[in-house]
């Protein structure tokens, strides 16, 4: 009988120190926060006696990893937190955080832009915002540009060269269709990013409308987002046009656009991202800064579920952090935590 040898997984954590808000809206908020001393990890002991090693022991470890963004009430990301300040709950059962690192690594981002005759103004709602986001990228960031109408199309594959991204943007001249396949575009992009390592994000620029030509449903796209380790940051386009023509809309039209906004918001929230609905071009620079600050001030957490799950079902995640005096006024401030809402266990 052949003996199968398995490698025992050792979880190693390399902490990256000195995170700062390089592009945050308020650079002094949440930077080098004077932290309240955290309670030591439960079960810590000064006993240096080593645990006997069992020869031939095989350990099957399923680590649940995800990124977390912590902000103050104004949305300014908070850096400088430590592992002991995070409590992670899996289906309301507190877990032991085994993997922890603050991350300021380069980004891998897909700019996913709707390009169809739906609603809005071509330059203000597509070209300008896309160009502005490209300009906000750093030299070591990877980015791809994907446009979608009746199908998603890669205009520029992953590159660090902004000029190549602008070349792809120049191909978006005159929309040819009035149909949109938002659900397919999101699903396919998330699927493509599954094989990409590192910190990943989608900058989704869309009206939120899908004209019922997608092969995937909204539920399938949302489930894909919930299972993904890619954060979606949504920007609702055509808001000014909607405001201008609102008095001409029927009740059904108004409900349709409200549902479209909810699609953009729910896709973002499912991944731990955020959504914005700007009405004027002047709002976009602040959005770029906020997205950049959020993406570059994340915490990567991981844990091994206390009860191994092999049911193939979704399990809810919740993360708590203590209130800290981030604005140095002597009073603890309530902090917000954003992360993916859950994960799907493997099915045996």
Description:
This protein is α/β, with parallel strands linked by helices. It folds into 2 domains: 64-102 and 309-344, no CATH class; 107-294, Rossmann fold (3-Layer(aba) Sandwich). Helices cover 25% and strands 24% of the residues. The protein contains 7 helices and 14 strands. The chain has a 6-stranded mixed sheet with strand order 7-6-5-8-9-10, sandwiched between helices. A 4-stranded antiparallel sheet has the order 4-11-1-13. A hairpin with a 2-residue loop joins strand 2 and strand 3 (93-95). Helix 3 runs parallel beside helix 4 and helix 4 (218-227) runs parallel beside helix 6 (251-271). It is globular and about 55 Å long.
Quick description:
By secondary structure, the protein is an alpha/beta fold.
Q: How many structural domains can be distinguished in the coordinates?
A: 2
Any idea what the CATH superfamily of the largest domain is called?
von Willebrand factor, type A domain
The CATH topology of the largest domain: Rossmann fold
Helix percent band: 10-25%
Structural class computed from helices and strand pairing: alpha/beta
Strand arrangement in the largest pleated sheet: 7-6-5-8-9-10
What is the residue-averaged pLDDT?
Answer: 82
Radius of gyration: 22 Å
Sketch the major β-sheet: 6 strands, mixed
């Amino acid at each position: 009988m052949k003996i199968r040898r398995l490698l025992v997984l050792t979880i190693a954590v390399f902490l990256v120190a000195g995170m700062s808000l390089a592009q945050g809206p308020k650079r002094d908020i949440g930077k080098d926060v004077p932290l309240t001393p955290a309670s030591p990890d439960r079960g810590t002991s000064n006993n240096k006696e080593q645990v006997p090693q069992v020869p031939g022991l095989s350990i099957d470890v399923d680590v649940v990893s995800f990124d977390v963004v912590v902000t103050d009430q104004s949305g300014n990301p908070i850096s400088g937190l430590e592992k002991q300040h995070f409590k992670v709950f899996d289906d309301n059962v507190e877990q032991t955080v085994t993997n922890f690192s603050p991350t300021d690594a380069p980004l891998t981002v897909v700019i996913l832009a709707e390009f169809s005759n739906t609603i809005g103004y071509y330059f203000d709602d597509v070209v300008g915002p896309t160009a502005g986001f490209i300009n906000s990228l750093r030299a070591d960031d990877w980015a791809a540009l994907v446009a979608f109408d009746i199908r998603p199309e890669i205009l520029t594959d992953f590159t660090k060269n902004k000029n190549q991204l602008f070349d792809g943007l120049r191909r978006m001249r005159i929309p040819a269709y009035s149909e949109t396949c938002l659900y397919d575009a999101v699903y396919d992009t998330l699927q493509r990013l599954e094989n990409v390592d590192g910190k990943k994000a989608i900058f989704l620029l869309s009206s939120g409308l899908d004209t019922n030509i997608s092969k995937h449903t909204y539920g399938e796209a949302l489930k894909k987002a919930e299972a993904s380790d890619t954060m979606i940051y949504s920007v609702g386009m055509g808001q000014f046009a909607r405001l201008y023509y609102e008095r001409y809309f029927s009740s059904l039209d108004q409900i349709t656009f409200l549902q479209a906004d909810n699609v953009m918001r729910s896709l973002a929230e499912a991944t731990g991202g955020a959504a914005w609905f700007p009405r004027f071009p002047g709002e976009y620079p602040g959005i770029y800064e906020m997205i950049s600050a959020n993406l570059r001030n994340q915490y990567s957490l991981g844990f091994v579920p206390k009860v191994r799950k092999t049911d193939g079902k979704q399990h809810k995640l919740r993360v708590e952090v203590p209130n800290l005096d981030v604005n140095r006024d002597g009073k603890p401030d309530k902090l917000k935590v954003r992360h993916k809402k859950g994960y799907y266990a493997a099915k045996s």
